[in-house]
Structures are given as C-alpha cells and as structure tokens.
Design a protein that fits this description.
Neuraminidase; four-stranded antiparallel β-sheet; 3 domains; globular
Length: 558
C-alpha cells in the first residue's frame, strides 16, 4: 500500500493479499489442525487435515477471528474475535456453525484454552487495566480472575491432568514461563532468562513444556521438563518460530514459522527433526524499499513460485521482475543514486550479498564465503556496503566497497553484533549488540573505531533508525514490559519515550523532514500504521482495517 502522510489516499500497489498462516491447534484425535490465516484479506480461522491437505475456512467475518482452541471432545472450537467491536471469546461448532459469544466486555479478551474435562475455559483479559489470566465455565458463566499483578500475564495453557495452568508473564521485567494451580495459588517461575520466553504448550503426558525463547538471539522453540529443568533447543536455523502445539500422541509439534514476512505453519518431530511446511501458501509481498527520489519501489514477492525481487513505479504501474532463480532472493536495498539494488540470496548454496542494476541487468555476487552474509546497507555516498556475516563464528558487522572488494571487519566481539545502519553523513554506523549481556543500541565510527553504548537497560533495545540530520536515533525498547518507541540523541543523552500503551509499538521510521515518526502499533488488536511528532505529541492513526498493516516507509518525494 501507499498513502499520503495524513493516512489518506491509500492505494494497493501490488494487488496482493497477506496470506500469513499461524497459531496451529490440534484436534483431540490428531486428525485436523485449526489455524489462522489472512489469505482472504482478513484474519480468519481455517482447518486442515494433519498432513496439510483440504484447507477449509471456518469463519467469515470482516473483523479479526483468531487463536482457535478445540474442546476436548473435538466438537467445538473456542476462539477470539473482534466482531463485537473489541476482542472477546466466542464458541463455534467444529464445522464453523452456531457461533456463540461467551464474553462481553469493553476490554480485550483472547487466547482461550480449555480445561481437559471441557467444563472451563482459561483466557487472558485486560478488563482490570492490564492483562491477567481468567477462567470461566464453558458457557461463559462463573468468571474468576486467577492472576493479579501489575505486569502482563498472558497465553494460558492447562496441564493435561487439569491441575495446573502454565502462562507467560513479564512480572520480572522480561517474559518468562510460570505455572500455577487452577485456583491461582502455588505460583512457580519455570524459566529465568534475560531474553523472552513465551507460548507454553504441555506435552500430552504433562511431563514436558514446549515454548519459544529469544535466548539464542533468534526466536526458537525449546522444551523443558514440567518443573523447568532440562531445557533443550528444538530449532536453530535462523528462522523465527513460535506458538508450538503438541500432537495428541506426543510424537509431533506443530508450530508457526516467520521468515521475513512469510508466516507459515510447520510440523516437526517432537525432537525438532523432520520439519515440514503444512499451510503452504504464497508469502506476502514485503520488504518494501523506495528509491531515494520516490519514483520507484523495490519489493519481494513469491507470485511466480518463489521469493524474487521486483520493482514497480510509485503509482503501482510498470511491474518488472529483476531476479529469476529457484532459490530465495530477499531484502532489496536501493543504492543512493537509484541505479542498483543490493540484496541477499542463497542461490549459491548459502546466503550471500548480490547487487543488480535497477533494470535487472548486470547481476553480480559481492560476497563469497561458506558462512552466512546478509542485511546489506548502502553508505550514503554509495561507495560502501555494510552487512552482517557469520564468517568468524558469530554475527559481526563488516563493510566492503560497492564492487565487493575491500571487505573489512568492523566489529570483533564474542557476542552478536547486527542491524547496522549508516548515519546520514556516512561517518558513523549504529547497530545492535548483545556484548553487555542483552540487546542494546551502539554506535561506532564508519571504520569500526569509537564504539559507544547508547542505551543501558536490562530489557531489549532494538531497531535503531537515524534522524535525517543525524542528531538523534529512534529505537524500540521493551523496558516498560512491551515494545515502545524511544528517541535518544546520537551521543546517548536526551532519552525520550514517544509512545505509552500496553500494546506493542514497533518499526519506527523518520519522515524525510525529521519532524514525525511513523510506526506500527498493535493497540487496536491488529497491526496498524500510526505516526507521532518527535516530541511524542500529535499521535495519529493512519490506517484502519481488519488486516495487519506493517513495514511503513516514507517516500522522499512529498
């Protein structure tokens, strides 16, 4: 989509939907998997056979329908929906018929989960000012609050024997897994890590809990004993995974995977092996990059069967496919003069940096190393390209001449350094590093010297973006329990919080004149685009629709 800075004049340039598939839920007999998808232009609940075949739409409403949970006898599905004006818990038959509303509150209710005997439903709600765990009878009566803490408690999961409920909470600053008795007593913290853990899912025999964790620097699936011991990783391949769900026989785990903008349902053995893609739908078009003169847009699309780089005019005309290869081509970035596009591809067996002319000619491979090279970023004068590489055993920041020569390692630390972004004058590079034990924003000179830590907080600080004049940096922080937008001076002083909402705000991007910042917010239950003055005033919602809007990019032409 493209729109005017005030949110008006929205136009669909690619005329494609966002077919994301996520949050799998097994039927009790293991024959079917319910899930959510945006393949029909808004988020709906679908069901498919356990092998991924015969995908059928169960809900059909302009509002959000999501987070399905099967009743223990397989006859009904509880789910969250915004069809009543806000997110509430609903119930329907397993074929999608006889939809019944169970909760009716101005606040947001979500993530239902059935008790094993089918008599009660646990769910999360912010009806008392912040997200807590509640339980009710399966007909919506007998509401009771189980948790009571100023922090956020969410994603409840009943144990198979019905005696305990696992859930996610950030009551100790970052998200961790907790368990409690079904009356709310006996609270025990199961995970204790500086990075987020979430989405607990019990194995059918109740002995293990699968969950996602960011502890490796990537969102992966782990499993642990029900007492929190014996934590082992099940995935580790640089794709983000979340929302694990054990098969009823305990041999498989369905999960959501996120690779760029491609959100899909995967299936793997309980030990993490043999991963298979189930809800195999085309990935959405994404990774939008404007040319600096605002006349053209580069983007990624799978419209021809796999991930390729395309370019079009700013009005949506003139589609041109630039790359044509069975492998994945990803993350295009325009050169400052608009004549070339850098991207990364695994066409030669591993992820490398390539450059191509804007008309699709003169493809050239810039890096050649057995390790992974990715995330290219042009210097403002177009003579250098910074990128991230694992060639020295962990993620470090490198740069090279625009022809691939003169590769130089800029950072050298055992921890991960990544997400480089040049200052507008090309003299400095901001980046993210874990070198002090958690993710913080740093800045260094363009030659790698003068590394300075700009943020200092136990929570995650990510996604630095320079202001057009190079004096400030916007970033996302979870220091307040959820993602918020902050701005700091380029020397680390003058920290200012711009957004303040219980929902996540992320992906900040400066307007070309430096007076406003656009970002994505989930404060309305789905991703919408907002913008705000750089002092935090003048918050404006720019998009308003049931689907997810994300990846805002300012055109330089207005």
């Amino acid at each position: 989509m493209v729109m005017n800075p005030d949110g008006s004049g929205q136009r669909n340039l690619s005329h494609r939907t966002d077919p994301s598939n996520s949050y799998p839920a097994w039927s009790p007999d293991g024959s079917h998997i319910a899930f959510i998808s945006t393949r029909d232009d808004n988020t709906e609940i679908y069901v498919m056979n356990a092998d991924g075949s015969y995908q059928t739409r169960l809900t059909d409403h302009p509002a959000f329908d999501g987070f399905p949970a099967w009743s223990p006898d397989g006859s009904r599905i509880a789910f969250a929906s915004g069809r009543g004006g806000n997110s509430d818990i609903y119930l329907m038959n397993a074929d999608g018929s006889r939809v019944t509303r169970l909760t009716d509150n101005p606040a947001s209710d979500g993530f239902p989960d059935w008790s094993p005997d089918g008599t009660r439903i646990a769910f999360e709600s912010n009806r008392d000012g912040n997200s807590e765990i509640y339980v009710m009878n399966a007909d919506g009566t007998g509401l009771g609050r189980l948790t009571d803490d100023p922090a956020v408690d969410f994603t409840p999961a009943w144990s198979p024997d019905g005696t305990r409920i696992a859930f996610t909470s950030n009551r100790d600053r970052n998200a961790n897994i907790y368990v409690m008795n079904v009356d709310g007593a006996g609270l025990v913290r199961l995970t204790d890590h500086l990075d987020d853990d979430g989405d607990p899912a019990w194995s059918p025999d109740g002995s293990r809990i699968a969950f996602y964790s960011d502890r490796s620097g990537n969102r992966d699936i782990y499993a642990m004993n029900a007492d929190g011991s014996d934590v082992i990783p099940l995935t580790d391949d640089r794709i983000s995974y979340f929302a694990p769900a054990w098969s009823p026989d305990g041999t498989s785990i369905a999960l959501s995977s996120k690779h760029g903008d491609d959100l899909e349902i995967m299936l793997m053995d309980a030990d993490g092996s043999n991963r298979t893609r189930l809800a195999d739908r085309p990935a959405p078009e994404g990774f939008v990059a404007w040319s600096l003169d605002g006349s053209r847009v580069a983007f990624v699309s799978t419209r021809d069967g796999n991930s390729e780089i395309y370019v079009m005019n700013a009005d949506g005309s003139g589609y041109t496919r630039l790359t044509d290869h069975p492998a994945v081509d990803f993350a295009p970035v325009w050169s400052p003069d608009g004549t070339r596009i850098a991207f990364y591809s695994d066409r030669d067996g591993n992820r490398e940096i390539y450059v191509i002319s804007a008309d699709g000619s003169d493809l050239k491979r810039l890096t050649e190393d057995p390790a992974v090279d990715f995330a290219p970023v042009w210097s403002p004068d177009g003579t250098r390209i910074a990128f991230v590489s694992e060639r020295d055993g962990n993620r470090e920041i490198y740069d090279m001449n625009a022809d691939g020569s003169g590769v130089t390692r800029l950072t050298d630390h055992p921890a991960w350094d990544f997400a480089p972004i040049w200052s507008p004058d090309g003299s400095r590079i901001a980046f993210v590093s874990r070198r002090d034990g958690n993710y913080e924003v740093y800045v260094m000179n363009a030659d790698g010297s003068g590394v300075t830590r700009l943020t200092d907080h136990p929570a995650l600080d990510l996604g630095p973006v320079w202001s057009p004049d190079g004096s400030r940096i916007a970033f996302v922080s979870r220091r307040d329990g959820n993602g918020e937008i902050y701005v700091v001076n380029a020397d680390g002083s003058g920290l200012r919080r711009l957004t303040d909402h219980p929902a996540d705000d992320e992906d900040p991007i400066w307007s070309p004149n430096g007076t406003r910042i656009a970002f994505v917010s989930y404060r309305d239950g789905n991703g919408e685009i907002y913008d705000v003055n750089v002092d935090g005033t003048g918050l404006t919602r720019l998009t308003d629709n049931p689907g997810h809007d994300r990846d805002p990019i300012w055109s330089s032409s207005p």
